Amino acid sequence: MPEGRAATVNLGEGTEEVLRHRRRFLKCLRGCRRVVDLGSGVGGFTQRLTRDGVDVICVDSCPEAVRQCRRRGLSAVCADAVEFLAAHPHEFDGIWCAYLVERLRPPKAEQLVRESYAALRARGVLIILTPNPRDVSDTGESLRPGTGPHFGEDSTYVQPYAAAMLQRMLVAAGFGIEDASEMPAAGLQARGWLKRLAREGRGLVSRALIGRHLHPGDIYVVARKGGDDRGC
Length: 232
What we know:
Layout: H1 16-21, H2 26-29, E1 34-38, H3 44-51, E2 55-60, H4 63-71, E3 75-78, H5 81-86, E4 92-98, H6 106-119, E5 120-130, H7 163-173, E6 175-182, H8 186-189, H9 192-200, H10 203-213, E7 219-225
Parallel strand pairs: 1-2, 1-4, 2-3, 4-5
Antiparallel strand pairs: 5-7, 6-7
C-alpha cells in the first residue's frame, strides 16, 4: 500500500465529525478484550476504543501513520494487514477495517477476509467500512464530511466493493452476517436546506442540485465468526 495513502484519507480519521459518524460501531467492539484496527491511519477511531478500556493495536503500512499513532500513546505496528493477520491466529475478539478493502484487488481482499476469520477468536466480530460504489464516477470535491474521499480523488482506490459482494466473500470464509447497509450521507445531515430540498423538491432541477451537494453514504458489513446471532 503506498505510503502516501495516509496523507489522503486515514490521516483525516481523527476529525470529530468523522468519528461521530462512526460512533454506531463502537458498541459492536466495546465487549471485546482485544481488537485490531487494520489500516488505522493515525488511530482516531482506535483512540475512542481505548478510552472504553479495549486493548487495541493499530496496523498500517504507512510509517508516518504508525509514528503518529505512537505519539498519541497507541500501540501500533507498521505491517501489511494480511501478513499481520496471518501471523496472529486466534488472537482477537474484534477487527475494525475502514477504508482498506477498496485498496485491494479481489484476490487479496478475499485473503484478507479469510485471514480475518483465522485471526478472530470464537464469536469474534469483523466490521468492514468502505466507500459506496455509487461514488465511482464522482471526481469532484467531497462534500460529505462524515466519510472519506471518493474513488476519483484517491489514486490508491483500486476496486469498489458493494455490500452484496462483501457478504458473499464473508460467508464463503465462514462468517455469519449480522448487519449490512448503507450509512446515511453525513453531508445531508449537516445541511438543513438540502434536507428540505430532498423532502419538498420536485423535478430535474432539485435532483441536479442534490446530486451536486450530496453523495451516497458509505457501506458497511458487520460479520460474526461462527454466525453468532447477537446483534450490535
